[in-house]
Structures
1.
Amino acid sequence: MQAVKRFIKKNFGQWVYSRQCNPIQKNNIESWVEQLQQKPIENLSDASFDVFTYHGEDGILFYLANKLPNVSPTFIDIGAGDCIKSNCANLAVHHGWQGVFIDKSSEQLAVGKSFFKHQINKGADIRFIQTEVTRENVNRLMTGNLINNKVGILSIDIDGNDFWIWKAIEQVQPEIVVIEAKVEFGLKSIAVPYGNHNHHSVDSKYNGASVEALRQLGLTKGYKLVGANKQGYNLFFVKQNSPLPEVATASVLDNEETSSSFYSEIFFASHKFEIV
């Protein structure tokens, strides 16, 4: 079934996503963010708006990119999947952003290459890299594939070593970082140890890092946590000198559905974690 879906998206992507690709979506999200700029929002998730994303990331990222000064319209998306249901697709399709999609699946990237061929044919610098990102190769990938030597947004979503990949990055300082957390780890400051093959194992619950662990990591790298999507699993960081207010881990997880997903103490006692 997945192969059939990929075939359809690869060959008929512009038709499948015709609503999302309609230029009216550009006007819709721009109008939405313009309204938000008129008055302070209580939570970053209030900026949620979906064009290609599932849980408001398009609106949040576009809001941040317009709220912060001098954000380069460039991105690096690690764990891009098919590059369509991506944190960066809306920016590339509707707002002229350029950047790099990275994923270990050649089949997934083939879908993205087909989908973005119209932008590329018009001169957009959109690149695709098929590789598994590791602590050892991530800096080479970053520095070898920068657009205009800048990164406006770095997105990391690989369902595993996300914490360790961000920690390893030394060569670039994106203006905005969006990274996936394991909200099921609750308020603990823990990360699953780095593992080969992205630490995927027979235990699908055992991967990733908690919100607090990522918040602490952000601080060491000069970033502050400014919010998350409503479910709390996609975290948004900006540089410490940004005028946006920092938020606490507890506020990110202050959602009944999210808190009900926390793992029991039995789970934590039976697995090894790095304390951050």
Note: The radius of gyration is 18 Å.
2.
Amino acid sequence: MRLAKRRTPQTKRGLLPEAKHLVLPAGIVASGFPRVEAICKSILIEFDPWQRDLNRCILAKGSDGQYAADIVALSIGRQVGKTWDVGAVCFAECIAVPETTVVWTAHRFKVARESFDEHRGMAQSPKLAAHIDIDEITTGAGNECIPFRNGSRIVYAARERGSIRGFRKVRILVLDEAQILTEAALSDLAPTQNQATNPLLILMGTPPKPTDPGDVFTRIRAEALSGETDATLYVEIGAQKGCDPDDRNAWREANPSYPKRTPARAIQRLRRLLSLEDFLREALGIWDSSSTGVLDIDKWRRELADPAQQFEGTPPLGLDMTPDRAWCSIGAGAIDGKRRLVELVEHRRGSSWVVDWFTDPGKPHRRGYRVAIMPGSPAGSLIEPLRAAGVAVFEVSSQEYAHGCGAWFDAFEAGTLRHRPHPDLDAAVEGARVTKREAWTWDRRSPNAVISPLVAVTLAAQCAAQPREAFFAAAWR
């Protein structure tokens, strides 16, 4: 059984090699960066090579001249220079396009004020006098604004104060501290761009703590890395997980501005001030397991099935569909005593292909397929079409599913579960969370990942645990 893969995130070899992850939006034909760079040179702003690459990606455009990315998400640590870089891009765009409104937000007023102070220093350059009257810059708390002579402006505000709701036609919206951006705040802010021409939305932050309301940032990261979206630019710069936090090579991986612009002393200061966990997140840009899920992804990746270990005949299958009905997954499972073997065998967009997949005459043993489905799940709508096509369907109750999730987790913790490697299943395991509202089960609405591959292999293992006689009695009732 071969997997029909979802969209592979587009990357460009040699572009931004400093990034651990670079996911480009689809359809890029040009970039607005040459214009921005020319303006910045005229006002004596120069970019480092990694910033030039980053800005080329941020300002990438499609064939219609619009920005290719609906969302730009930057996971970059502290003391790297992202505030200065994105600020320079905003300055150039304000100069190039009259009447441009940029809203720069942070969760806390203090952080928004720090960004304003840094940019106000840039604005006081003599080369900007033709574009900015420094006497018109407003500095009152809560009213920070850098106005341009052509009607453009950069406004700074804290999301916690809810002071952005009244804005309209915001062309560039910068959401700093994205690791603590809530869904409620995003729903307030996103409409400010509805009437803007060619708007640009930029989220930037560091990996969230377990206590942070980081669902938005985590969800966007998971969608980008899994290839679920083709309209997001995702850039992650960070050291490798498990590195020595005092290794200067790790500092270089996490901070392309080190040591030229960010001295060792600045990083050492963070090392002294922050806990080890916070230093790994905020200075080295490392996403930790508690930020993304409940399963140890490193343990998961180690416990691969022996290539010689094969399913006998046609294995029991599990079928799941995402809550938005955008993806369907088919998993296979087998149980031998206490040992379990699972595999993700198919994962595709939509659901129209599912019945044909099970009834394809070119597939071996097609008459022997047994598939487990939860009737109350989105995939429940496929039960009758599959049965009409001659497929044996086992309906898994909510209680049986809870037992299956628990048994799957227990086998994983005991080291008796093996799997065949697959990136979509890996992403589901890494991002999985659990819900305990009624029973301990995988949270099907997890913001961290598309978990239907995990649900599918869990159902497959649950199907494998059923006696064949009991299975067919249930299947044909």
Note: The longest strand covers residues 339-349.
3.
Amino acid sequence: MLRLLLVSMLLSVTAVAADPIAIDTAHSSASELATKSQLEHLIAEYNLGRWSYTHKIVIDEKSIPHSHPVLTLHTRHLKQDDELLSTYVHEQLHWFFVANDQDTDAAISDLKKLYPKVPVGYPDGANDEQSTYLHILVCYEEGQLDDRILGSDRTREVMNFWAGDHYRWVYRTVLQDGPKVADIIATHKLQPVEAQ
């Protein structure tokens, strides 16, 4: 009986791990369809399925990228592979941190001691204080995964681009204080593991 249960569990895990990433478009516009094709290519080329914690993606030219309830990307980075890949990784990481909410909350408590005052709102912070702290974790790990996927030179270019674009304070902080953030992430065992 135990053997049958273990085999059944193994088959369930294998089925989940093999779930394909489904990418839909919101309006089926030319830019959405082209971004979908670009993302499909990147997922295959870089084996991004291993860093995909949700498998349902929507490309919406009228939306700002967000992770929940459905991971949604825009068409801004059409023909900018590294930026699109990094945005995809960023939004996937939100799913990782949500799945590890207690450890994430504990890490945020430590970040509040390190950074008692953080910016809120575009272009330097996120929508609210809690989200700015969360984005320190997400953006740090985004850089770490980008480095594993793209290499250090391309990752440095992408992270420097973000540091001048949005979440500017967050990305600059991650670039400047990476080892401090890494210590907090390690303390709370929040290094992302391959999803598949």
Note: Strands lie at 22-25, 56-59, 71-73.
4.
Amino acid sequence: MLTAALVSFSPNVQAQTSTNQNICSRYKSTDAEMNKVYQQILSEYKQDSVFLQKMKTAQRAWLAFRDAHLDSLYPAENKLRAYGSVNSDCRCLALEELTAKRISELKKWTSGLPKGEVCAGSIKNKN
């Protein structure tokens, strides 16, 4: 019991916790940005109910993909034993990377594509 108490106050553990909080904080910020862009799409395209239904389906599928992808990267049941204490950092980094890519995809609907783009589909033209 005393060993556990000493370990929890060691500088390395505190540094790891601080690093993890920073890394996971970056992911949370990226996730918040994605949600903001997604809400902007829902607002800007509110007149197109068919598109909105399809976009919501796509976003739910993307979230399922994100979670499944993360599970495929770190499939072990006991992640601490299999991947070590850095695993939570690695998971947050992977989530941040995937989410940043999704933001890039979603921003096409808010920023638009050049006029004349023949494959724009539901994406509006740039003003």
Note: Residues 11-44 form the longest helix (34 residues).
